[in-house]
Design brief:
Elements (H helix, E strand, L loop, with lengths): L11 E3 L7 H11 L8 H24 L6 H15 L3 E8 L5 E7 L4 H7 L1 E3 L6 H8 L3 E3 L12 H7 L3 E8 L5 E9 L8 H36 L3 E6 L4 E4 L1 H7 L3 H4 L17 H11 L1 E9 L5 E12 L5 E10 L1 H15 L9 H18 L2 E10 L1 H8 L1 H18 L5 E6 L2 E9 L3 H15 L2 E3 L2 E3 L2 E9 L6 H17 L4 E4 L2 H20 L5 E10 L4 E13 L3 E3 L1 H10 L3 H20 L7 E6 L1 H5 L2 H12 L7 E6 L2 H5 L1 H12 L3 E7 L6 H6 L4 E4 L1 H4 L6 H16 L3 E4 L5 H9 L4 E2 L8 E2 H23 L1
Parallel strand pairs: 1-5, 18-19, 21-23, 23-24, 24-25, 25-26, 26-27, 27-28
Antiparallel strand pairs: 2-3, 2-7, 3-4, 5-6, 6-7, 8-9, 8-12, 10-11, 11-12, 13-15, 13-18, 14-15, 16-17, 20-21, 20-28, 20-29, 21-22
Bound molecules: ligand C2E and magnesium ion (2 copies).
Organism: Candidatus Methylospira mobilis
Protein name: EAL domain-containing protein
Cofactor: Mg(2+)
Length: about 775
């Protein structure tokens, strides 16, 4: 296998004696070169001259950069040119393929047709003959005698047939120095080393091939570039060093609406102004001058005036001494993409109903304002605003009214603040205000007062007027909290304090609000597992028939004893359970307990009583308890007769048809209904007519005044008289003294409940009370009988 040791940077001479006779070779050579021969010597000379002239002209054109023929034709031209200069020369041009694995024959002398097949595709690694080695190592190779050279032993027969004796191979190097192929001159004359002239000719031919090949690929590249320029979907604008337009492509016109003739030679005005927040074009040009390139979004304008968002890539092209020669501006229209991005951004950051920033955007802005406040040392105020009575509007008048109310609230709140303040909707009926850079804290109370006043103004909706108010909580940074989460939490706690204080007011955060709220939170956490932890018990309080002094009813009252906090008042935990959605679950448990004891006591005539269960309107609104209870009562029809339901006469009860309907359903199943705490709510007479209750429970606050307070007496008398006229029985709550009992009896009250008779007691004690009563009754009866 080749290569010989002498294949290095010097030319390689490979000599072998020729076993062929010169005559035979000449004959063969003449035969092979037949197409070149012509009739007479004069004609031959003329022919050779013509050929040489034509070749010179074509090669001259090539040198001058005139359009050239297809790459292979140019190589043929070079081969013909070399062959006209030397009758014994037969040339081939091989190029290395892209993978650098093969030498591909790109052009060859017509006389070499017998060799063509074996030389057309040479695998460089597996066929390392002189040709491949010249290509691989970039060294000129000279084989002085092919007939006996080992490299060519596979081709001996063919080279002999072609009359070839020697071959000189010159690597073709690209301008970069990389070997791209070989130019070979096969010789048909006698063997021997080539002269300096021969070698010059070989080298020139290789150089010419290189020029032709490179010009061809350059021409292809230019054609490709021109076609890209013309057909690009991206706009291309080229400007000079002073930013005057030099050229634009068709996509430029398509995107901007400006035809070529309106912009060429004029100053570039398409990217003058950017939108707020982005870099100005002036700034971009500064970056371009410094870095040589810039890329980003920029706003432009279409010829028709429409805004145009483009993704722009700017590059400057320097001249030989490094000064800016041209700017290339490449841009595509991203207006639609920007619009949809903006829409998505808006949807993600703004509340669709009120168009106010939403929670997410508000928190971003708040964080920024807190950082600013940290730098400037100025106070930042957060106001949490919750609408009072919004739920009622939504439930009673429908969601359209609720939406109208929220929109109007947003408008009013926006009108109460300065330009740099942020009003946002956190969700539902909860709004929030960030008021940064406050110098005078007194102004905050002024703002809060005016918000309260403005929100309390009635809102017109069709033929109705809606009236709500706002509970406001105020927290200051850095006084009340040193971070965003605490600031939000403290404003929220202050807002709850406003709610607790009676709504339609503002409260500034204080440490006592914080403590109270923390306790509340602790209570909430404990309440969540109180049922599972069996911390609840039901106590029973007797209700006495004032005519007989006998216990005929009992109210089931829930008791919660926490292992650490001790007994917790139902007036404290029931509203929390309502708020956090636990009331249904707890109420169902109370119901089960009441049913169980009603059944137990009902089975014995001496203990039979009616048990009344308190139900929160929320239990009826969310539907859960109603379904569970009615399902049970449908199956266990005997229980209903021993049960009553107490519902507080309040706003929800008053307004909700749904609640009334559900209560009536209970009534159909045989359960009696009592209106609890009567006199504390609206006590609407028409409502009493509409709502078919069985009992009215006069609130303890009216009984307290008995027997001395004339207005309490008058009220109790009126309630009793009115109830009786409507067919309702009356129970007096909170009877503590005999005087109260006597007076109630005097004015016709039917039943009484209070500490005078018994405090609420555990079931076992209640049972004892009932048994004792039964014993007493039978003793009385026996006494009467005797
Ligand atoms: P309520 O339904 O009006 O119950 C009567 C309340 O008055 C009970 O308070 C009872 O202990 C108290 N009371 C009775 N007689 C007297 C008296 O002579 N003097 C005084 N000072 N108080 C008396 P309690 O047990 O603290 O219950 C408070 C409220 O909690 C109840 O008022 C009721 O609205 C609610 N509640 C209690 N248990 C439940 C329950 O299981 N479910 C629901 N939804 N609410 C309940
Ligand atoms: Mg009650
Ligand atoms: Mg009551």
């Amino acid at each position: 296998m080749m290569p010989p040791a002498c294949f290095c940077s010097r030319p390689v001479w490979i000599r072998h004696p020729s076993p062929w006779s010169t005559r035979t070779l000449k004959q063969i050579a003449q035969r092979i070169s037949q197409p070149k021969s012509v009739n007479s010597a004069a004609e031959q000379a003329m022919h050779v001259k013509k050929l040489a002239d034509s070749h010179s002209r074509k090669l001259d054109n090539l040198a001058k950069g005139m359009p050239i023929l297809d790459g292979t034709e140019v190589l043929d031209l070079i081969i013909e040119y070399v062959e006209t200069k030397d009758e014994d020369a037969f040339c081939t041009v091989h190029l290395i393929n892209e993978e650098a694995t093969h030498l591909i024959c790109k052009a060859s002398s017509a006389a070499l047709s017998t060799l063509k097949a074996s030389l057309s595709n040479l695998e460089i690694e597996d066929f390392p003959n002189s040709l491949a080695i010249a290509a691989q190592q970039g060294i000129r190779a000279v084989v002085e005698d092919l007939r006996c050279h080992a490299d060519w032993q596979h081709h001996h027969a063919r080279t002999a047939l072609a009359g070839l004796i020697a071959v000189w191979i010159e690597p073709i190097r690209a301008s970069t120095g990389k070997v791209i192929g070989t130019f070979s001159i096969f010789r048909s004359s006698s063997a021997g080393p080539p002269s300096d002239n021969d070698l010059d000719r070989l080298q020139n031919a290789s150089n010419l091939a290189r020029i032709a090949l490179e010009r061809k690929s350059l021409q292809e590249e230019l054609l490709l570039a021109a076609s890209v320029y013309q057909n690009s979907s991206e706009a291309i604008m080229i400007t000079d060093q002073k930013d005057y337009v030099v050229a634009v492509n068709p996509a430029f016109t398509r995107i901007t609406g400006y035809p070529e003739y309106e912009v060429i030679g004029k100053p570039q005005r398409h990217f003058k102004q950017n939108r707020a927040g982005g870099a100005s074009y002036k700034k971009i040009m500064q970056i371009l001058r410094a870095d040589g390139h810039w890329q980003g979004e920029i706003w432009s304008r279409h010829k028709n005036g429409a805004e145009l968002a483009v993704w722009l890539t700017l590059n400057s092209i320097p001249d030989e001494i490094g000064d800016v020669y041209r700017h290339i501006c490449l841009f595509s229209d991203i207006t639609e993409k920007k619009r949809s991005e903006e829409l998505i951004w808006k949807q993600a950051n703004y509340d669709a109903l009120t168009l106010l920033p939403n929670r997410r955007l508000f928190f971003d802005r708040l964080q920024l304002e807190i950082s600013k406040s940290k730098r400037t040392g100025k106070t930042l105020v957060l106001m949490m605003i919750d609408l009072d009575g919004f739920k009622a509007v939504n439930d009673q008048l429908g969601h359209a009214a609720g939406d109208h109310l929220l929109k109007e609230t947003a408008k009013r709140l926006r009108g109460c603040v300065r330009e740099g303040d942020t009003v946002a909707r956190l969700g539902g009926d909860e709004f929030i205000l960030c008021i940064p850079q406050i110098g005078d804290i007194a102004c905050i109370e002024r703002i809060a007062r005016s918000i309260n006043q403005i929100l309390a103004r009635s809102i017109g909706l069709a033929d109705k007027f809606l009236r709500v108010s706002g509970s406001i909580g105020i927290a200051e940074y850095p006084k009340d909290a040193d971070n965003m989460d605490d600031l939000l939490k403290h404003a929220d706690q202050a807002m709850y304090a406003s709610k607790k204080l009676g709504r339609n007011r503002y409260s500034r955060f204080t440490s006592s609000i914080h403590e109270e709220s923390e306790q509340q939170q602790q209570l909430i956490n404990c309440l969540r597992y109180a049922l599972d932890a069996r911390q609840f018990k039901v106590h029973f309080q007797p209700i006495v028939d004032l005519a007989t002094d006998r216990i005929i009813k009992a109210e089931a009252l829930l008791r919660w004893t926490h292992p650490l906090m001790g007994k917790i008042n139902p007036a404290v935990f029931i509203p929390i359970a309502e708020e956090i959605g636990l009331i249904g679950e707890i109420g169902d448990w109370v119901f089960q307990q009441a049913v169980q004891y009603a059944k137990r006591w009902g089975q014995c005539s001496s203990t039979r009583i009616q048990i009344s269960i308190n139900i929160s309107p929320i239990q009826l609104l969310d539907g859960g308890s109603h379904n569970t209870w009615t399902e049970f009562l449908q199956k266990d029809t005997s229980s209903a007769a021993n049960l009553a339901i107490e519902i507080t006469e309040g706003l929800l009860l008053n307004e909700h048809r749904e609640v009334t309907e559900k209560l009536m359903r209970f009534r159909e199943l045989g359960i009696q209904i009592a209106l609890d705490d009567f006199g504390t709510g609206y006590s609407s007479l028409s409502y009493l007519m509409k709502f078919k209750a069985d009992y009215i429970k006069i609130d303890r606050s009216f009984i307290e005044g008995l027997p001395t307070d004339p207005s309490c007496i008058a009220l109790c008398e009126a309630i009793i008289a009115m109830s009786h006229r409507l067919g309702l029985k009356v129970i007096a709550e909170g009877v503590e003294t005999k005087a109260q009992r006597d007076q109630l009896r005097d004015i016709g009250c039917d039943y009484a409940q209070g500490y005078l008779f018994s405090k609420p007691v555990p079931a076992e004690e209640m049972e004892q009370l009932l048994l004792a009563q039964s014993v007493l009754a039978s003793a009385n009866q026996t006494a009467k009988g005797t």
